[in-house]
Write a structure and sequence with these properties.
alpha/beta; Rossmann fold; 14% strand
Amino acid sequence: MHVLFVCSGNICRSPFAEALARSLAEGFEFSSAGTIARSGDPASAGGITVAAGLGVDMRGHRASHLTAEILADVDIVYAMEEEHIATVLALDPGARVELLSPDGVAIPDPYGGDDLEYAASYSLIVDAIKQRFTESD
């Protein structure tokens, strides 16, 4: 099963979710993309720092802009916010897409914020990834 994580710039939330899920769950293919990403951009400095403190290495990440071609190769999309769901469905009306948080809580964008804002967003992602990929085992 190929799982795609989607956020805005693909430089903090979705690459963190991708890397964390890859480290915790087996039997899945994980990738990430951003609705307004500039392909090739590195992960944000703040994101790299906070992720490293959580044992997740995002230094090699490069952003990917979300396209219909990317969506054609995935089984499910987990989005950080409702606006990301709308963009996914505009590109592929038949896409299987939902918020990453099983509780339906949007994960706020920490970009431009301090380490506490990154930590708060990443904490929500950790909880969601654990609920989606490890607690049902």
